[in-house]
Design goal:
about 40% helix; 3-stranded antiparallel β-sheet
């Protein structure tokens, strides 16, 4: 069995990767790409410390690197040298969007049901399956699912209470890669609030006031939705 390198060697390797990427591209190194470096070796070595990669960087390497997140979509996370000067959310968002999409186009985020499949705890007696076509949803059962429209999400891909959003994102992207599935079918476009103009009713005002992570937790009866839509803001 290959012996794991000492922590200081791992720390130097991470720092070198982040600094070299910054020097060559003047852009953050996405956390998911850092974790997958060397066939996923960085993530594997960090997991041996019983923590997620983002948490490890913040706790152990804050003097060498800084972890940055998109203010509207925390699943888009990157790493830059500690010396990089980023003063505003707008600067951080622009850098992350450019890195992830090659332009400053719309922010992409995962469908809430897809994200929940990797974040929600799984009962010990159940197995979880994700749809591979619309409508995007997951289901659980106590036995093997035979439907061709669903692929299992093994327990090893599902976050536990010690994992943060960074690790959840890595698990989700690793599951997509391992199952040769396209990411696009699980993404939803998240337009900036300014693109929608002014709120036209109370429902608009409510939706505009909430962040994406808050929207994911909301369910509302149809009669209440209709009532809010019919009320002026």
């Amino acid at each position: 069995m290959t012996e794991s390198p000492p922590p200081e060697k791992l720390d130097s390797r991470i720092t070198d990767l982040v600094e070299r990427h910054w020097q060559e591209h003047q852009a953050p190194l996405l956390l998911s790409r850092l974790g997958s470096h060397g066939g996923g070796e960085i993530s594997r070595l960090v997991r041996e410390q019983r923590t997620g990669l983002g948490t490890y960087l913040r706790d152990q390497l804050a003097d060498r690197v800084q972890v940055i997140q998109h203010s509207a979509n925390p699943t888009i996370t990157g790493v830059v040298p500690a010396s990089a000067t980023l003063d505003t959310d707008e600067e951080i968002n622009a850098l992350l969007e450019k890195t992830r999409h090659g332009s400053s186009g719309p922010v992409l985020r995962f469908h809430p049901a897809f994200w929940a499949a990797f974040r929600k705890p799984l009962d010990e007696s159940n197995r979880r399956y994700m749809s591979v076509s619309a409508p995007i949803r997951f289901q659980e059962s106590s036995g093997e699912n035979q439907s061709n429209d669903f692929v299992e999400v093994p327990r090893t891909y599902i976050s536990d209470s010690a994992m943060d959003d960074d690790q959840t994102l890595q698990n989700a992207e690793r599951w997509l890669t391992d199952n040769e599935l396209q990411k696009d079918i699980y993404l939803t476009n998240a337009k900036p609030k300014s693109d929608f103009g002014h709120p036209r009713n109370l429902l608009d005002r409510l939706l505009f006031s909430l962040e994406p992570k808050e929207l994911n937790r909301i369910s509302m009866p149809l009669d209440i939705i209709l009532k809010l839509r019919n009320q002026a803001p």
